[in-house]
Amino acid sequence: GSAGVSAGTPRSSAELREAVEVAKSYLHERAYEFFETPEELDAVLTTVAQHTDAHSDFLTGEADVIWRGERNEEQNEAMLYIKRENPAKDSPSYVNRLLAALFLEDMAFARLQILPKEPLKMRCGNQLCVNLSHISLP
């Protein structure tokens, strides 16, 4: 379409719930180690669904999936805050690193572990894209 970056197609509440359920079916078991409660994980998956367009697919799609949420000003990178049960532990996270940790299989994830704790590079050249398949593996 001809919509600008700011305009997107938000998911309805039913689409949000469905997107979260679909995402959960793809989670790597390590995902559960990052969160103290299932609610924290659900909140992150809901945030991802809220800030990506309806009909976009960061798990199995091929097209860019543009992040509509918070971004880090200096680098224009997709960011989100992980909300913890204890608000003092709320932590900013680069969306592409977070999704890699939650979903990538072990071999790919291990290759990313050698990189500095900075945003991952996206092969498509768009650092606001959060499509897992666009992550550039070293």
Tell me the number of strands: 3
Radius of gyration: 14 Å
- The proportion of residues in beta strands is 5-15%
N→C terminal distance: 33 Å
SSE run: HHEEEHH
The total count of helices amounts to: 4
Oligomer category: single chain
* Low-pLDDT sequence parts: none
**Estimated structural class:** alpha+beta
Summarize the structure.
The chain has 4 helices and 3 strands; from the N terminus they run H-H-E-E-E-H-H.
Give an account of the 3D structure.
The chain is α+β, with helices and mostly antiparallel strands and 138 residues long. It is 32% helix and 9% strand. It has 4 helices and 3 strands, in the order H-H-E-E-E-H-H. The chain has helices at residues 13-26, 38-50, 95-103, 106-113, and strands at residues 71-72, 77-82, 91-94. A 3-stranded antiparallel beta sheet has the order 1-2-3. Strand 1 and strand 2 form a beta hairpin. Helix 1 packs across helix 2. The protein is globular, with a radius of gyration of 14 Å. The N and C termini lie far apart (33 Å). The model has no long low-confidence stretch (mean pLDDT 92).
Protein topology:
Elements: H1 13-26, H2 38-50, E1 71-72, E2 77-82, E3 91-94, H3 95-103, H4 106-113
Antiparallel strand pairs: 1-2, 2-3
What keyword list fits this structure?
single chain, 138 residues, alpha+beta, 3 strands, globular
